[in-house]
Prior knowledge:
With 244 residues, the protein is of the alpha/beta class. The chain has one domain: NAD(P)-binding Rossmann-like Domain (Rossmann fold, 3-Layer(aba) Sandwich), CATH 3.40.50.720. 43% of the residues lie in helices and 15% in strands.
Amino acid sequence: MVKTVIVTGSSSGIGRDVARAFVERGDNVVLNGRDEDKLAEVAAGLGAPDQVAAVAGDIGIPATGVALVRAAVERFGGVDVLVNNAGIFGAKPFVDVTEQDLDSYLNGNLKGTYFTTQAVVRLLREQARGGSIVNLGTVLIDHAIAGVPASAALVSKGGIHALTTSLAAELAADGIRVNAVAPGFIRTPLFGDGDEAATGRFALLNRIGEVAETTAAVLYLVDAAFTTGHIFPVDGGYLSGRAA
């Protein structure tokens, strides 16, 4: 059955690849990003105009989630899947974090995920056919690194992990499954020009990950009908041990 999928933050990195994968398997996708021109470029690059819609906007603003749902209904007749990928990450020593810094992470990560999910869940309940929500967290919630002081970012991502398990319980009776993918170090624009060799040694597989490997986990969780409340690490064994 063809699904309709909303993917936030789909103008680059993990979100863009997730959108590609859904389109390639024949699903409809509603793209989202803050840069309208870049979003249009991604939509055109997917090469399937009948399967793609795009809504530019900051998910930290609740109205953006409402607009994404509206676009999905008007273009494709409903929603089956939400992938909450949009987010920001960065390192800054704890004592240097400003209120503006913290608000930026809470709005861009936690608040955006929370209110976009809220808009989608309202529709999923109205449709009464269940659904699947996949959030993007990080393995650094469970195993921080002294050299990556990212308390502000991790507080917001930790909230996403908590939201995942809480909603899995609350929404199970509606047939709505809620899971999360927790990436390790992945080759995306957020990784930038980081030292791949040094960073790769944090994982048992002795390398950083690729976006397609994160996408595979998202697709699995979307289709895994007996899985909910699961935080799925995609980290090359980072949580389990060290390559050396």
